[in-house]
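Okay, is this right?
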Amino acid sequence: MTEDAGTTAPATDDDLEAVTRLNAAFQSIRSEVHKQIIGQDQVLEQLLIGIFSRGHCLLEGVPGLAKTLMIRTVAEALALTFRRIQFTPDLMPADVVGTEVIAQSPSGDREFKFLPGPIFGNLILADEINRTPPKTQAALLEAMQERQVTVGGRMHKLGEPFFVLATQNPIEQEGTYPLPEAQLDRFMFNVFVEYPSEEEEVHIVRATTSDQTPKINHVLNGSEVIALQNIVRRVPAAEHVVRYATRLVRMTRKGKGATPPKFINDYIQWGAGPRASQFLILAGKARAVLHGRFFVTTQDVRTVAAPVLRHRLLTNFTAESEGIKPDDIVARLINEMPPEESEVLDGGKLPHLLGSNDRR
């Protein structure tokens, strides 16, 4: 389980200054990434929300949409150590986490020496994660949850910050191994990468068929990313916002003590667990800070609901036969859950924390 996302200490002047700094960094990172990537603003925002929430992201999209290039560019803008692991059917767990070899010490004795694998980096790209067998996919589980790996009975801590951004092709089924539900739940976001618009595609073709190579400037470094992650955790979430996120998740479940809408009973086999509620609040906090606010609203929760919930809802045969997708169910849930009094933020006092009534 992740850390508690609901209780925080009062904001300090340093916190508010850090929010302003992160908002400025967000704009700068977006500008740097757009030197390489045309469009995909929503995808980029979701990636950064995941990074500043200490979460992992699973990107889905057809080949050729620059998923790998976007992740590499984000790592460069954040001055993070980037490692790319190409998952293939013959990849072994040791190829990911590392292995122990027998080496000769300066004294002449033979001893085991640990050779770290590519998982030892800051930003790990697990490319085409669904093309490798489950035993290799599982090698990521301990690293993603505990931020450590165990090899030969010895625990090896991973460096901070640490993120796994995995990609998979949703249309390719032959020779693939779907991720089990337990591992899907480790990903904070399931991000859909869509086709660009016509104008964006024209711009892409012009930019990528010339001899110009843009230079990506560093906006933040690893220690600054860690400090800003801590700021995100300190963002206050009002009681009504926490309850809104919790109710939204609980409405996806059937069974004892649950009172979901009828369409949930019709279309859902299994709903989301408590980790979804935690991630809704954490993602809402990160989104608020990226937009220059030190408070989270139900609008933030609604905005991040689809990428948080879509891979945690298991639809039944009825939904599949009628073409009902998890995103359709999330949209219906949001429409049936009005914000109530949740947008009345203590008489409008909270927005003045940053001297603005901006409530994007």
Remarks:
- Residues 9-88+121-234 form a domain with the Rossmann fold fold (CATH 3.40.50.300).
- The chain is about 40% helix and 15% strand.
- The CA atoms of residues 50 and 56 lie 6 Å apart.
- The two ends are 29 Å apart (CA to CA).
